Amino acid sequence: MITKTIYEIIDIAAIIGIILTIRACNRIKFEYGKWLSHSLIAAVVAIFANMLVAFSVSSASAEFSYCLYFASIDWILYFIAGFCLLYTEHDKAWGKLFIPCAFIMAADSVSLFANLIFRHHFNIYEKAIHGTVFYQTAFQPSYYVHLALDYSLVLLALFFIVYRIIKSYGLYRTKYVIILSVLLLVIVLNLVYMAMSLVLDISVIFYAVAGFLIYFCTEVFVPRGLMRSAVARAVDDMSEGLILFDIGHHLIYANTFSRNHFDIDPADYDIDCEPVASVISGLKEEGKSFGETTYVKNTMSGTKHYKIRYTSLTDKKVRPIGSYFLIQDTTEEVFYLHEIEEARINADNANRAKSTFLANMSHEIRTPLNSVLGMNEMILRTTDDPQIREYAENVRSSGDTLLSLINDILDFSKIEAGRMDIIHAEYDPQKLVRDCYYFFEQTAVAKGLYLKVEYDEKIPRRLSGDMLHIKQVLTNIISNAVKYTLDGGVTISLSYRITGRDHIDLMIDVSDTGIGIERKDIAVLFEAFKRINEKENATIQGTGLGLAITKELVDMMEGEIKVDSTPGKGSSFKVTFPQDVVDQTHSGPLRLRREKDEEVYRERFRAPNALILVVDDVPVNLKVVSALLKETLVQIDGASGGEMAVEMCNKTKYDVILLDHRMPKKDGIETFRDIRNAGLNMNTPVVMLTANALHGAEEEYRKEGFAGYLSKPVVAKDLENMLIRLLPEQKVEKKF
Ligand code: ADP
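Above: the input record for the complex with adenosine-5'-diphosphate. Below: its predicted structure, written as tokens.
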């Protein structure tokens, strides 16, 4: 009875083992996983049959249980053979064998159950052990055919495993050896059972053990072993350095990179060796216990640069277990950064040279242009001959175009060099639109176009923004609208939208009925030097810079510009500028007071008692100023250089001095300082009259102490306004 109970316990343990193994098997996601689980199911059937044998109370039930048991062994071996062939990557061979083998096993199973009738495999007899009756088998010769079939399946599997073992190496060989061992265990246990003629088959325990062994081998041992050796290899081959220390700062590992780059001898390398020591002390200086730093090493082949990261290592419970250094060779990166920096400096220098060149060129062009336009102005003022007036008007118009071209190029270079500032100041939006209107009115009328203004009366009376640059934007857009319109005209609309308590968006729309722009061209409209339909527009003057500058200026003022256009019908440019409101009162209806430009020049004041000094090294420029001021009756002294000017200032007191900047020997600034320091004109207002239109020039002059700034070519009206402002009031007779 005791023997049977022990036997029961063994069987139940085996079943539990097998169930666990089947569950584990499900986790083996490969094709062969299903073969292993089928063999385990067959093993469960075998154990079940074995238990039936143990609990049989008649020879008939014992005989049936034995048949079931022997048949299940067939299927265990069949499925194990399948598993072994697939596991050793003999899919093709098993693909050919699995159907014939299944037939043979099925025939053998049928033959085993036929024993219930023919008794050709075994007979049952009773055997009493310690008072307990066991049913045992006495085998017939044909039983050995069944055994031979079973063992030929085992031999088949063995053959393929051994073949794979010979062909493989390393961990893979270990993996196949484990499978071979499992298979041999089946054979040995079966042989033991048969040799010892045990009353019951205890080999069932093996099925659980075999299952676990296979699972352990396929899921744990091989993958982990492979991972460990692969990681070790990859770390060693890394193109970065890795140095590992234990908690006591002893070297545990240094990969090939670090060994080669820092001559690390694992036997006596520790935390005080380079580069580790410098990195740690560097981090400590920064007050950090881990982080990243750079390290430079001089070698025979040159300077090497490294980036080293130091990190401490902790276990899952965040207890320190060591530290590691990750080292990156940044020599090439540093080299390229250096190259880029050099290229940037060169580009900066080239850019500066370009800006200086442009500024100089502009200066050089302005100087003769000053003479041309000044003298031309004199012709216009002095002649009534319509033919000569027409010629002179043409000279004026071409001169103005040339001047605006120079201004555009200079503006563009300023924007490119990031030297264009946005200066906010208070202004009257009505004045803004009025100025623009008057600027283009005559050109539009001359072309037979209308120029209309639509003004929203509710626009606040005073705004704050960069009116000069807004005006420049509008001038560019309106000038294009007039340029590219042949019939109809141009409408300028001003409206606004409230964006905050004291903030509005000033919205300006310039619409024309001109030639329009193709949709595809709108995308490139704001690119510098890009002119559209160059052939068709060849007769229209332009550089393709205007809209590029416009866009830059709008962006700098945080505004927005949009274009709508229909070829042949016209275009509409919509610009929006965020502005601050200074006075909320509505500005009311637009007053477009028509200040007709005098066709014939009229001086704005007379000052016969005023005496001014004009200093310029170019004699024509002296003549230009004298001629421009002729009608004002102002007395004018001329000096052809700085030294002469200082001398004259020591002798005569002037009411205003107009001074050129660039002069040979003593330049304008030096002359100014000398005049300020001694003589009779220490307090006389001095105006800089120069062709230097460089960015910030005016401010520089003001800082120096100049009372005003006029750029060449000098505009008569500006010159007169300047004198009205600076001459002693009692000497000026204004004329309106
Ligand atoms: P440009 O000095 O050539 O006028 P812009 O940058 O001001 O340079 O303009 C670029 C191009 O855009 C012009 O050459 C013209 O073809 C086109 N363009 C600009 N405004 C208009 C417009 N209102 N109607 C038609 N075409 C225009």
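Notes for the reader.
The two ends are 140 Å apart (CA to CA).
Residues 476, 480-481, 484, 512, 514-517, 525, 531-533, 537, 542-548, 571 surround adenosine-5'-diphosphate (CB under 6 Å).
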